[in-house]
Amino acid sequence: MNIYKQILEKKGHILALAPMEGVTDTVFRQVLCEIGKPDLFFTEFLNVEGFCSKGREKVVHRLDFRNIEKPVVVQLWGNVPEYYAETIEYVKTLNSDGIDINMGCSVRDVLSSGRGSALINDKVLAKEIIDVVKESAGDLPVSVKTRIGFDKIETEEWIGFLLEQGLDMITVHGRLSKEGYATPSRWNEIAKCVKLRNDISPKTVILGNGDVKDIGQAKEYSDKYSVDGVMIGRAILTNPWLFSGKKPEEISKEERVTTLLHHLGIFEKEKGNMDIFNSQKKYIKAYISNFDGAVELRTRLMELNTADEVREELLQFVS
């Protein structure tokens, strides 16, 4: 029984954290394991062409995870099938819980090279990639994260096609590739995916994604739209405690500061060079919010250059 079916058997639905480049790295995921862990993590997405090039050492860190984070699914992207096969040989040494193919990314540089959601317009290549991944993955379940269409809604045609490929899971984001967050996620289209699944591939797990802000809404949408679970993304940066069920206003100032300090400690352990801290500033607002003096403290922290300086400022604040 694959990991998706195991979670469903145990919990009835799946709450997953979306893979977000530069956000859901192993440091942040380890923090979430202690303050509110989802049922399923995904790694940051790894470009298979980059992994199979001389620049491997610059990208392989995206596959980093620790046992505390499991279950963890590795997400890959690219448009060269043989590079998927080569990358997966390495992935199989990591003790991950699955392989996910990104066919949903709408970043311009990704699209311009025919990758990500551009694969919606190239079913021949999409099938070739899926076939290679399934053949290479061994016992690991294979899934796809995608959208309801590229520049027009084509739920029946595209998701129907994916369901014919024998995938273990499909995560559907309810927007087109060309649409930004100002356009609401179309959960009625995600519900159509479930009906298609029931007809074409009843064993395939369907997750919905888009505009879900907390686990209460996730459970509501799981029932309302009959999906097997929900993947939550941006909301985690508004409330890192989201998967615990706690609301932002329920987290004390002391816990917020302590959690950021803990984040710094994990960052130091994983990355070594504490001077390179700018990459972590994106998390400051996530932790330092919803208490008197938070804005002023954030302003001071954002002006600092190293993790040690941030730690000193935080300790002074709570002393």
TrEMBL record:
Q: Which keywords label this protein?
A: Flavoprotein, FMN, NADP, Nucleotide-binding, Oxidoreductase, RNA-binding, tRNA processing, tRNA-binding
The answer on whether this UniProt entry bears the keyword tRNA-binding reads yes
In this chain, FMN is annotated as bound at 75, 145, 173, 233-234
Chemical reaction(s) catalysed: a 5,6-dihydrouridine in tRNA + NADP(+) = a uridine in tRNA + NADPH + H(+); a 5,6-dihydrouridine in tRNA + NAD(+) = a uridine in tRNA + NADH + H(+)
Q: Which residues form the active site?
A: 105 (proton donor)
Under which EC number(s) is this enzyme classified?
1.3.1.-
| GO MF term list | flavin adenine dinucleotide binding; tRNA binding; tRNA dihydrouridine synthase activity
Keyword field contains Membrane: no
Functional description taken from the UniProt entry: Catalyzes the synthesis of 5,6-dihydrouridine (D), a modified base found in the D-loop of most tRNAs, via the reduction of the C5-C6 double bond in target uridines.
State the family it belongs to: Belongs to the dus family.
Protein name in UniProt: tRNA-dihydrouridine synthase
The opening ranks of the lineage are: Bacteria, Candidatus Dojkabacteria
